[in-house]
Amino acid sequence: MFKKDITPGAKSKVKSSTQRGIRAKVLEEYPLLEPHIEAILPKKEQLDVIKLPDRVALYTLGTTPLFFQHMDDAIMPHLTVVHRYPDAFHRLRIDRGAIRFVLSGASLMVPGLTSAGGRLPDDDEDEEERYGEDELEAGTVVVIEAEGKETACMVGVLKMGTAEMKKVKKGQACEAGHYLGDGLWGLSLG
């Protein structure tokens, strides 16, 4: 979605009623963020929205990007929020071979998740707590981590459920929403 460098459009203040709605939507989509919501979206702080190309709205607190949303799609976290609160999101892990493709903006393919270095929910007893035990449905917003790396490299939306991925082992797994090094990551808000 943000393969090229982007220039921010108009910046405007979000009305307090809309801000409450955004906060409620974030908590509904990411319930594990509840203990941190006051630090992320404080009630007394002014939330801003910046219009980006392709009908994308970027919600910021000062110069800190928080969430973005394409039209009426799911509200997705910016990687700065993911890096601060990694345990608050559904996570999957790609193998080393898929890293360069993901960081070049390609859609994530199933073999990158089902190979030896990849992790899906309920794959490994030792890492069950990290990647969860419940299968994820298509349309779920997920954070993609990379084998051997400490921080997440992508946020995207699943194109197929994780149970189906385990069965078919091929096809498109996740559509890239935002990844390290993309136009949204490099956007200067200062």
From TrEMBL:
Gene3D superfamilies: 3.10.400.20. Residues 90-181 form the PUA domain. It is found in: Cytoplasm. One of its GO terms (biological process) is formation of translation preinitiation complex. Residues 122-134 have a biased composition (Acidic residues). Keywords: Cytoplasm. InterPro entries: MCT-1/Tma20, Pre-PUA, PUA, PUA-like_sf, PUA_eIF2d-like, Uncharacterised_CHP00451. GO terms for molecular function: RNA binding. Residues 114-134 are annotated as: Disordered. The keyword Cytoplasm applies. It comes from the Eukaryota. Transmembrane segments: none annotated. One of its GO terms (cellular component) is cytoplasm. The keyword Cytoplasm applies. Belongs to the TMA20 family. Involved in translation. This is Translation machinery-associated protein 20.
